Amino acid sequence: MEDVIKRIVEAEREAEERIERAKEEAKAIVRNAKEEAKTIEEEILAKAQAEAESLVQKAREEGEAEAKRIIEEGEREIESLRSKAETNFETAIARAIELVRGG
């Protein structure tokens, strides 16, 4: 009978040790999972930041290209108007001279 009691006590002790080891393993798993989640979060944030910077740079470049195109188009229009104004002025002078000469 005493042998049975010793085996029961030993079995309970082993069960408690297993429970403690399981608790420690569970804590380690949770700790590792938290660390891994933090690493993943940091990687995602870094990737999102890089992508945001890339999008901002792309938008800036597109905006600068559009501004340059608009400026160039405006300069062409100004040159065209200047040319037309010169032509109209020359035509007006020629007609004025013609009128003065009696034509």
From TrEMBL:
It comes from the Archaea. GO terms for molecular function: hydrolase activity. Its EC number is 3.6.3.14. Residues 1-84 form a coiled coil. Keywords: Coiled coil, Hydrolase. InterPro entries: ATP_synth_B-like_membr_sf, ATPase_A1A0-cplx_hsu. SUPFAM superfamilies: F1F0 ATP synthase subunit B, membrane domain. The keyword Chaperone does not apply. This is ATP synthase subunit H.
